[in-house]
Amino acid sequence: MIDYKNNGIGVKLIRKKNKRELIRPIYWQVTYKRTRRLFYTGFSCTDEEWDEFLNKQLRKHKETKETLQNYFDETLKPLIKKFAENNSFSFVALENKLKRKDHQNINVNEAFKYKIEALVENNKIGNATIYSSTINALMKFKHYKRLRKNADKEAFIKQCIECKHISVGKKALNITAKIVFEEITPEFLTECERFWLDIKIAHGTIGIYMRTLRAIIKNEEGEKPYINSEEYPFGKKRGKYDIPEGGRREVALELEGIWGIEGFETDIDSLILARDVIVFMYYGNGMNFGDFCRLMYEDIDAPTQEIVFQRKKTLRDGEKPTYIYVPLLPPMVEIINRHGNKKQDGYIFPFLNGIEPTSENEDKIKEAINAALAPINSSLKIIAEKLELDPELSTSYSRNSYITHLTTEMYVNPIVVKKMVGHSTKKDVTAGYVNLTPKKRREINSKLLNPNKKYTTINSGKAVEVG
User: Do 335 and 420 sit in the same domain of this protein?
Assistant: First the structure.
């Protein structure tokens, strides 16, 4: 009856096989990159009825056929068509769109949940973390608003400050509070800003949180915003909430800040790990945390002493795989020796141990990466406080810092920088003439090393031997 395809996305009606049941459900089967997901239509039938349904024009099936055809024409096909045109399909995104269609009275918490799930599926862990932090901060404010006694409010503010950088364990402050879009007013946002300032959230971070909430409200991926134009709370006009300036800030550290983190000494294992992770990512061409976790020992090219890997982002977007060539500098070897798996036949670092790097395990891999990221970022904020660095320090600073240092301090050609970090150069005609050698890549990255630090590279095996 319906068998539709668009840019690799397929949709058709199927009836699941099950010999034990005479009456079996009818599903929408959506296929993408050899993966299938089933969505229940609400209808079931026998084998005989299914044969009639497909091959005969009987009056008794007319209403069911019209219902299914209308659902396909009005809901499924437009969604698939839009995903195909934007090259942005994922099963989580489709499920979220369908949920929004079926549940018009979605609340703020659910809208954030759907967005975070889509970001995680697309391996945008850093963005997902921002959305998670925003909804958590909003729920703290909602909880604060419900407190009646001033003493209780003061105690809660103190608790928020004390637990600010604790995201896991018994001391972590996990607040759950339902928020509906109707209560997001200019007054709500003004009070929220005041509360966030009271619990020592920086102005810049407040700007980021408010912009994140604004993006949720606009619902640019959906058919219409969650709040209509008359009730829309943001704006510079009188009576609207104006997001504080400075929300968009540069998340890059000065080179001395990177060296400060690298030289940070502590006996606390979680801080040692966080320190070494961001340093490795920085010297590793500013790689992102997802790619860092996925690194394999087989990615190390012994003759050139470089790590060669494909950016997961370009694989996801369906583009031609982008290879990154990372010179193994002495501090990176030291970090591998401290934290790397001693058995050099799988992942370099232990974050994904036990999970085979296959497409079938992609959900497990993303979950493990996301779970590992939160405590590392919490530990980085503790390090930042001790070193008097940006209090919002996170793993994302490694990439921005690396690019900033190459472009604004070392004046490296922008095309070279793009090739080092894996940015697209398709639109630049001269990019094809820029071919970096291993020697040149090592020369560029070596200039970032702290000239006052002595490195010792005690190797754990031939794979990471540095001459």
Answer: yes
User: Residue 22: which region, alpha, beta or left (left: phi > 0; alpha: psi -120 to 50)?
Assistant: alpha
Helices 186-198 and 203-218 pack at an angle, to 10 degrees, of 150
Helix (H) or strand (E) holding 387: helix 362-387
Query: What beta strand segments (E) does 159-260 contain?
Result: none
Angstrom distance (rounded) from CA 318 to CA 87: 8
Instruction: Give the Cα separation of 184 and 193 in Å (integer).
Output: 13
438 versus 125: which is more confidently predicted?
438
Tracing tokens 């980085």 back to the chain, one arrives at 380
Condensed to tens digits (0 to 9), the pLDDT of residues 201-241 reads 888 889 889 999 999 998 876 667 888 888 999 998 889 99
Question: Which residues pair with residue 9 across a beta bridge?
Answer: 6, 32
CATH number at residue 337: 1.10.443
Q: What is the pLDDT of residue 441?
A: 93
Domain that holds residue 284: 255-464
Measure the CA–CA gap between 72 and 81, rounded to whole angstroms: 12
Number of domains in the chain: 3
Two structure tokens written together for 83: 């995903």
Sheet containing 323-327: give its strands across: 300-301, 306-310, 323-327
- Taking only the tens place, the pLDDT of each residue in 163-186 is 877 766 677 788 999 999 999 999
Does 294 share its domain with 370? yes
Could you tell me the two tokens for 41?
A: 């239509």
CA-to-CA separations, 180 to 130, 225, 422, in angstroms, rounded: 20, 14, 41
pLDDT of residue 99: 66
The token duo for 321 is 């795989």
Q: Residue 367 — very low, low, confident or very high, per pLDDT cuts 50/70/90?
A: confident
Q: Is residue 161 part of a domain?
A: yes
The verdict on 296 and 434 lying in the same domain is yes
Indicate the SS3 state at residue 354: coil
Q: 């979950």: which residue's tokens?
A: 367
410 lies in the same domain as 277: yes
Q: Which tens digit of pLDDT belongs to each residue from 24-64?
A: 889 899 999 888 888 888 888 888 888 888 888 888 889 99
In a domain, 418, yes or no: yes
Q: Which two tokens stand for residue 163?
A: 């637990």
Looking at the structure, tell me whether residues 260 and 318 fall in a common domain. yes
Residue type at position 397: Y
Kindly state whether residue 245 falls inside one of the protein's structural domains: no
Higher pLDDT, 459 or 35: 35
Residue 241 lies in a domain: no
Please give the single-letter amino acid code of residue 9: I
